[in-house]
Amino acid sequence: MTTQDTKPRSKTSGSQFSYTPQDGLLLEVEDLFVEFHTRDGVATAINGVSFNLHQGESLAILGESGSGKSVTAQAVMGILDMPPAVIPAGHIRYCGQDLLSMPDEQRRLTRGPEISMIFQDALSSLNPVFPVGWQIAEMFRTHRGMNKSDAIEQAIQLMERVSIPAARERVKAYPHQFSGGMRQRIMIAMAIALDPAVLIADEPTTALDVTVQAQIMALLQELQEERQMGLILITHDLGVVADVADRIAVMYAGRLVETATVHELYASPAHPYTRGLLESIPRLDQKGQTLAAIGGLPPNLMRIPPGCPFNPRCRMAQDVCRTDLPPLREVVPGRFSACHFAEEVINA
Amino acid sequence: MPEVILSAQELVKHYPIKKGVLRRTAGQVKAVDGVSFDLHKGETLGIVGESGCGKSTLGRLLMRLEEPTAGKVIFEGADWSSASGREMRRMRRDIQIVFQDPYTSLNPRMTVGDIIGEPFEIHKDVVPKGGRRRRVQELLDLVGLNPEHINRYPHQFSGGQRQRIGIARGIALNPKVLVCDEPVSALDVSVQAQVVNLMEKLQDELGLAYVFIAHDLSVVRHISDRVGVMYLGRMAELGEEDEVYSRPTHPYTQALLSAVPVPDPTLRGKRDQIVLVGDVPSPANPPSGCRFHTRCWKAQELCSQEEPQLEMRADGAGEHLSACHFAEPRTIVETVDVSDLEPDARFVATDLRDDALAADAPVDLDQMAERSGQLHGDAGYAPQEVTRLIDEQPGDHRPSDG
User: Fold this and answer.
1) ipTM of the complex
2) Is A260 an interface residue toward B (CB < 8 Å)?
């Protein structure tokens, strides 16, 4: 027996497991719950979230810090630290197969070739003691069993694809020798290396300056179109969403409060929280604008108020909002809102 | 225009780069390299620019937290940059600062009362000793916090509330100028608007002049009367808010404006897009001539040879200050005047106070994790991991709002 046969790295993922999307449906998240068990109690970070992602589609998950948007991404990617995280209920299906009940080894092989992720902070996500080319090439060596020089050659091509100037000369450079924007390009190169069907981008441009942000978002869009990936964009930036997304899911306190296409959502939000967010951001193209701030703070995830979690901050709240949790329901065809008075909000 | 209260004159700040065993100076980082502007009474001057452009150093120079390498800061006619320690302390009463990070700028071991009251310890004659506590409570009330929370510690407040505490400390001595260094960039969007509105209210009530330093061009447009755009330690463009945003003449301003996403999907693909190539050059070795010429699509030979001066240049409807040899106006964003538009009252928070809600939710997950770590004295326990997973990313301070 050669060493090649015993090492799992010699496996190529495609040969063992295959995934074919049905009608373009890549990802189904169904009634997902994530809790964090800590000594002070249980924090419910995700509270029954469901959404789908199709091939070539850009879905933005919009929310403030603590809304559960990043935890959702990490649950899909399978990189939550468990414990303290616990997934007490829910399904995450990739091409019809439930990732949560999959054996660990099979799940591991989905990370990279099927689903991959880029993070906000490229500097802390890249390993500082290895050259960037080596880190990109690792994808090919581990998942495709490629030899070192072929893998490096592939890495150079990828670096060129994400527009890193003088890629061949810089393949041996270390992460600290690159600027923030270039590091983010390297992360993108790693994420797309194995041609994933789903790319999750968690606040990919939050740490970058606006001119660099524009470059990175343009690159992401271009790659998505070229490869027909399903893109999940996790962000708090309503401006970036308007530029990139097809569909938006708005999260608040671990729940989806509204989903809609990007045009519908900006034209007529169907949840008071979304509406509040849109009115509280200053716009570059407006002058003399009155900022309508949302009062108060998002709730403590250990003590989410009864009824609608947004009710203490909502100016429209009635008695029913303080007692009954509004389900996410279809308000008009294709548009979902978790507000008892969604019809009133949408027509406001 | 009201009288000039603060004036920066050719301010320069170079930081030496030390090298070798003998720590010889091998070069200079030219953080701020000849910046001049006037700040008028009661106005807001916004300073925008990308990271590394020197905007924060400029703020610290105005406060004299850094000594300028050259140039002057004139406050009410007196040269502040050469004032003695005693004079400087007296003048500091009139110029205060609010820092970006509400998590590190407040001492975690001091109560809110001590933090906001500390300026009165140094400037003893502002409020008589017996009245200090009451004055602190007035200030808390003014910034929309519950005066009864005077004995609480910073960790018991959210990010937005902590920034209010920082603002209360900044206005404690009734200053005339408040330098705000990225005061809202660490805050969540829904909380950011609360703090921006608070700052506008305080300006109206107290007649403060703000130097508002930020990288977010939309926020700066909203709050500023005049705006300065910085690039690599120099002022590229300076003018009234509408001049800079509606009729920018400097290519850098134009590129910057075109890169800012606008929350309106109907504009997708229809906006004037200028994609700059490359990164900002190092301020240790700025390009010759016009510092922007290495990334500028209009650059000609003249630009690499001769540095353009910040002077009045035509912008189509008038003129304003711009430092480009080939300055010409270009409309990047179609400005819509919405000053008559009132937001729907059903979705607006009418008062600035949020303590009623805060009292109910004073502890967030980060704090809880931290606290349990401290209480149990258990370094192996994973409070940080909990924090990180709930957070957006490690090192991002924004999450504690939630």
Assistant:
1) 0.83
2) no
